[in-house]
Design a protein that fits this description.
The structure is a single chain. This protein is an alpha+beta fold. It folds into three domains: 8-89, Phosphorylase Kinase, domain 1 (2-Layer Sandwich), CATH 3.30.200; 94-290, Transferase(Phosphotransferase), domain 1; 386-408 and 456-748, Neuraminidase (6 Propeller), CATH 2.120.10.30. It has twelve helices and 40 strands. It has a six-stranded antiparallel β-sheet with strand order 1-2-3-4-6-5, covered by helices on one side. A hairpin with a 5-residue loop joins strand 38 and strand 39 (733-735). The chain is elongated, with a radius of gyration of 30 Å.
């Protein structure tokens, strides 16, 4: 019986998803709950005890293999009456078949790099005593990681070469187009040359984008092999001849071994620096290639708007897409023509800009060279001592001056005008009720209305005077954020055009996690907040109305509510709650005041983020052992994994305004947090790093309303955390704050609407 996601195998391996099915079993993606690492599980069904014994012996041998282009086998067991299981390294990334299906024929140097890596893996297998024959080499079993490492996977069909040529149960399957003639039982047993045939067929498809004709049909005379150069004339004739020879129907006509085949390819000298690469056995695709051209090669967006110099705003340029686009294959002629047209247009624009005195003056004040980081000039004032813990790591208290940036003639006041008003307010007294039951679409459960009491509360009122801004930066030139510059963490507002800061809260227990309503007129936040954390015990979600200056409790309080996130229509608030004893994602209906648990599981779920169309919520979950991104609709079901980042820790998911990308911060097991962008269409298989400056850690990104900029939290080493503005393509970075306060939780204000 097939395993299902959530099943626990051998009291250790939690099934996450089914990667593939076969006639003799399945391949699963799972997490080892003992070691907290991801694994792949190959299942083989067996029919007799002798097969189980043979599988056990061969699994022992496979477990001894250590090669950079092969996953490790780490465990083996048999479940009586159910099946045999091999536990292997899980290799993140994308398989070669998916890559070819999407892009078609691959560049020649990439095909040869993949060929060298596979040759070395097979040469290693064939060199074991006794030799190990893979028997299922094909594009779907070639895995490429985001770092460019090539792996040959799926040992479940391997067999040991020996006198009796015994084969595993499950190894009888063939893959049309890639299996050798002898695997059909037409010409004796299989050997190393059978793997060579499959390797050549894999390279044939990588070069042409077409599956070669099936060996059995070629034997029957119904089809013949289409020459490679008929499908792709630019392939060198010698290379095509070597691959086609390895596809010979008779084994004796193929090269005698994978080693000879590899030497034939190297003799063509088609790869740069191949001698050094061969000596070091470093057959890696370039990182930009491994990430499937979502970085350098796919980034053709024009430069974003320049930062407003000295409080001025430049006229907007044509807005590019928010992220690099996935390229499509085009003919060389079209590429050359397109390039000439773009170059001509850029030259015309450049000459016109330089000739125009106003544009020239603006360009002279624009952003510094790409990749540079420039701090804004700031006045200094005293600041109290603060302490912070960053995701569980202590940060030592420091004393730092308070920046009051006032480049204009009228500086912003250092503190808000406080209008202390006592008013009788509904101080909520909520009745504890059992969480609602979801099946499978969540049915909201109405909460009892709060009982008013005569408790007098001190309300801070604010008067915010809008600044005249003819062309708002990023469509909205204001960013709310949390800062310890006044002692405790409080919510501040930064005006980009005027480069001024204004406090919005003065909570006695601190405040953080600002979240704007879609109309930009209200701000949700949490209190108490003493430092930047992932979990906030006893926090409650408050609402500040920027027009009236009033403040109230937004969500019925519990043991801790935090991570507020408004739905795009403004009718719902998703948030994290501890009311069930551990973090769960809840949905609060602002109209009916009903509350629904969307998570309904035993794992920790937190940091919800709405898609721009309101159809999905991204969130962080511990169900894979490490912090991973999951997706679910507002009903709560189904929930599916998105990020596939190995043991890297993901936090702070946010959507690009067009809904095409998920952006999040990612921390490797040894390293600093970085920003990662992942196209939704690639289902987490492709990740593109956005960190433009080495040594600067970045987290908690917030998109500008037009999608062209990001407000991020950044820091270097043990230094204080500051705010930065980063272009969405990762090419331009500028520092907003430069003091020893801790600035975090940026939230870009939506374009205010009446």
């Amino acid at each position: 019986m097939p395993l299902e996601p959530g099943n626990l195998l051998q009291n250790r391996y939690r099934i996450l998803e089914v990667l593939g099915h076969g006639g003799m079993g399945s391949i699963y993606h799972a997490v080892d709950e003992v070691l907290q690492v991801e694994v792949a599980i190959k299942e083989n069904l067996f029919a007799s005890p002798e097969y189980a014994e043979q599988f056990r012996q061969e699994a022992r041998l496979l477990a001894t293999l250590r090669h950079p282009n092969l996953p490790r086998v780490t465990d083996y067991f048999v479940i009586e009456g159910q099946g045999q299981y091999l536990i292997m390294d899980y290799i993140p990334g994308i398989d070669l078949k998916d890559r070819i299906d999407r892009e078609g024929a691959l560049p020649l140097h990439e095909v040869l790099t993949i060929a060298m890596a596979l040759c070395e893996a097979l040469e290693y297998l064939h060199g074991q005593q006794p030799p190990i024959i893979h028997r299922d080499v094909k594009p779907a079993n070639v895995r490429i990681t985001p770092e460019g490492q090539v792996y040959l996977v799926d040992f479940g069909l391997a067999k040991l070469g020996g006198a009796d040529q015994r084969t595993l149960t499950g190894a009888q399957a063939v893959t049309p187009g890639f299996s050798s003639p002898e695997q059909y039982g037409t010409s004796g047993h299989t050997d190393a040359r059978s793997d060579l045939y499959s390797l050549a067929a894999t390279l044939y498809m990588a070069l042409t984008g077409v599956t070669p004709e099936d060996a059995f049909e070629r034997l029957m005379g119904t089809h013949s092999l289409t020459p490679i150069r008929e499908l792709r004339p630019e392939v060198p004739p010698q290379l095509a001849a070597i691959i086609e020879q390895a596809l010979a129907l008779q084994r004796e006509e193929r090269p005698p071994s994978v080693r000879v085949f590899k030497e034939q390819l190297l003799a063509l000298n088609l790869l740069p620096n191949q001698e050094a690469l061969a000596q070091e056995h470093r057959w890696l695709l370039q990182p930009s290639t491994a990430q499937w051209r979502t970085s350098e090669e796919g980034n053709s967006s024009p430069e974003p708007d320049a930062f407003p110099p000295n409080g001025k705003t430049l006229a907007p340029q044509a807005q590019p897409s928010t992220q690099p686009q996935m390229p499509k294959r085009r003919g060389k002629g079209r590429l050359v023509l397109s390039g000439l047209l773009v170059l001509t247009a850029l030259l015309i624009l450049a000459v016109g800009a330089l000739a125009h005195p106003v544009l020239r003056a603006q360009l002279d004040q624009a952003v510094p060279a790409l990749g540079t980081v420039e701090a804004l000039p700031q006045a200094q004032a005293p600041l109290a001592t603060a302490q912070m813990w960053l995701y569980g790591l202590p940060w030592q208290p420091t004393t730092a001056p308070l920046p009051v940036v006032s480049p204009t003639a009228s500086p912003a006041p250092p503190s808000p005008t406080l209008a202390a008003a006592l008013r009788a307010t509904a101080s909520p007294t909520f009745t504890t009720t059992a969480p609602p039951t979801l099946s499978p679409t969540a049915t909201p459960t109405a909460l009892p209305s709060p009982t008013p009491s005569a408790t007098a509360v001190l309300v801070t009122q604010f008067t915010l005077t809008p600044v005249a801004q003819p062309t708002p930066f990023g469509q909205s030139g204001a960013i709310a954020f949390a800062s310890t510059r006044s002692g405790l963490a409080q919510i501040w507002l930064y005006d980009i055009a005027n480069q001024t800061f204004r406090p919005l809260t003065n909570e006695p227990d601190g405040a953080c996690q600002p979240a704007w309503s879609p109309d930009g007129q209200r701000l949700a936040f949490i209190t108490p907040c003493t430092r930047n954390q992932v979990r906030y015990e006893n926090a409650r979600i408050m609402l500040l109305d920027l027009q009236s200056g009033t403040m109230e409790v937004l969500v019925p309080p519990s043991q801790g509510d935090y991570d507020p996130a408004w739905s795009p229509d403004g009718n719902f608030l998703a948030f994290t709650s501890l009311r069930d004893g551990h973090p769960q994602i809840y949905l609060y209906n602002l109209k009916t005041q009903s509350l629904t648990n969307l998570s309904q599981n035993a794992y920790d779920d937190f940091m919800p983020a709405w898609s721009p169309d309101g159809a999905q919520l991204a969130f962080i979950s511990t169900r894979q052992g490490v912090y991973r991104i999951y997706l679910m609709p507002p009903s709560g079901q189904p929930q599916q994994g998105f990020s596939r980042s190995g043991n890297k820790r993901n936090l702070h998911p946010t959507w690009s305004p067009d809904g095409v990308y998920l952006l999040y911060s990612q921390t490797p097991s040894q390293g600093i947090p970085m920003l990662v962008s992942a196209p939704l269409a690639e289902q987490g298989l492709v990740e593109h790093s956005l960190n433009p400056a080495l040594g600067i850690a970045m987290a908690d990104p917030a998109y500008s309303p037009d999608g062209r900029w990001l407000a991020v939290e950044g820091w270097q080493g043990a230094e204080a955390h500051d705010l930065y503005l980063l272009s969405s393509n990762g090419q331009t970075l500028r520092q907003i704050t430069a003091d020893e306060a801790l600035d975090f939780d940026p939230a870009w204000r939506p374009k205010p609407t009446p």
